[in-house]
């Protein structure tokens, strides 16, 4: 498994290691009988002192998560054996994390949501972390259409320290962004809408129809192309239109159907038959509204 260590966290490095091992065990990233890296190997990987790793391992040993096999190292202890004394709550939490993982939720997201349920609070703004300018513009436009609180883009290194803001990022950016989110600040990984789901009820274009994929974002165009091919459109029928280039509207007008992001769609020629593809899934919009008390 991969460990994420933040040197400026309010949690000590030892406690970060302990928590990540426990989460990995509960979510089946680490299975019973699996050997953990040696203290020296993990210390080198995380660039920390080996004594810190040793202290974390021995804490986990004392709590019943690990077992020490002399001359071999530390291994994940069977949780059935650990629960032989009858800790029903551990079993319930174990099942919860496994079920959440099967639905695509990471353990850290489950913990954040449980914390919110136990200690509810309302976010007064949304902070989007997105490094790509064209994708950032698309995401801001979509979220602002549905969330009636200020929505702004922030740099990962300058996330507000107060707990009034909800930090959001795409799945591909989430692991790196999460390392910069201060303790106590809520974080949400945006779920993405599939092109398949957006187009499955649409009338299929004629075999000789030309479909344009209209966006300033190369990532959006590539993603849409892959998904459109997946729902049965021929690659030769697809035409990418970059709105950053002169004459893009004429190219879009010449196509039978334009599949566009929400920003590009605003400037499509009136004669275009258009289908707007939204990146953020409805489920994520609903989650943001819940965080903001809407």
Please give the largest β-sheet: 4 strands, parallel
Q: How many beta-strand segments? A: 10
Question: What is the C-level CATH assignment of the largest domain?
Answer: Alpha Beta
Question: How far do the termini sit from each other?
Answer: 38 Å
Low-confidence stretches: none
Total count of helical runs of at least 4 residues? 13
Q: What is the overall shape?
A: elongated
The largest sheet has its strands arranged as 4-3-5-6
CATH architecture assignment name of the largest domain? 3-Layer(aba) Sandwich
Q: State the helical fraction.
A: 40-55%
CATH homologous superfamily assignment of the largest domain: Response regulator
Q: Would you list the SSEs in sequence order as H and E?
A: HHHEEHHHEHEEHEHEHEHEHEH
Please state the structural category.
alpha/beta
Mean pLDDT over the residues: 83
Taking Cα atoms only, what radius of gyration do you get, to the nearest Å? 24 Å
Approximately what portion of the residues adopt beta-strand conformation? 5-15%
CATH topology assignment of the largest domain? Rossmann fold
Number of domains: 3
Descriptors for this entry?
10 strands, 42% helix, 4-stranded parallel beta sheet, Arc Repressor Mutant, subunit A, 13 helices, Rossmann fold, 294 residues, alpha/beta
């Amino acid at each position: 498994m991969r460990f994420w260590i933040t040197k400026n966290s309010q949690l000590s490095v030892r406690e970060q290691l302990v928590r990540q091992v426990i989460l990995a065990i509960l979510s089946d990233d680490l299975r019973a009988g699996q050997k953990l890296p040696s203290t020296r190997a993990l210390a080198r990987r995380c660039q920390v002192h080996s004594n810190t790793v040793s202290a974390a391992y021995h804490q986990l040993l004392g709590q019943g998560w690990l077992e020490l096999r002399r001359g071999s190292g530390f291994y994940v202890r069977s949780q059935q054996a650990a629960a032989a004394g009858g800790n029903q709550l551990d079993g319930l939490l174990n099942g919860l994390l496994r079920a959440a993982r099967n639905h695509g939720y990471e353990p850290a997201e489950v913990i954040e949501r449980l914390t919110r349920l136990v200690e509810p609070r309302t976010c007064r703004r949304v902070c989007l972390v997105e490094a790509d300018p064209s994708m950032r513009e698309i995401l801001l436009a979509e979220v602002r259409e549905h969330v009636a609180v200020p929505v702004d883009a922030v740099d990962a290194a300058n996330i507000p320290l107060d707990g009034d803001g909800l930090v959001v990022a795409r799945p591909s950016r989430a692991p790196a962004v999460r390392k910069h989110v201060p303790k106590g600040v809520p974080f949400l990984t945006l779920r993405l809408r599939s092109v398949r789901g957006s187009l499955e009820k649409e009338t299929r274009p004629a075999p000789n129809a030309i479909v344009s994929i209209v966006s300033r974002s190369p990532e959006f165009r590539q993603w849409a192309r892959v998904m459109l091919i997946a729902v049965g459109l021929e690659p030769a029928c697809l035409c990418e239109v970059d709105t950053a280039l002169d004459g893009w509207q004429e190219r879009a007008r010449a196509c039978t159907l334009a599949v566009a992001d929400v920003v590009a769609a605003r400037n499509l020629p009136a004669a275009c038959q258009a289908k707007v593809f939204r990146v953020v899934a409805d489920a994520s919009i609903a989650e943001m509204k819940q965080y903001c008390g809407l």
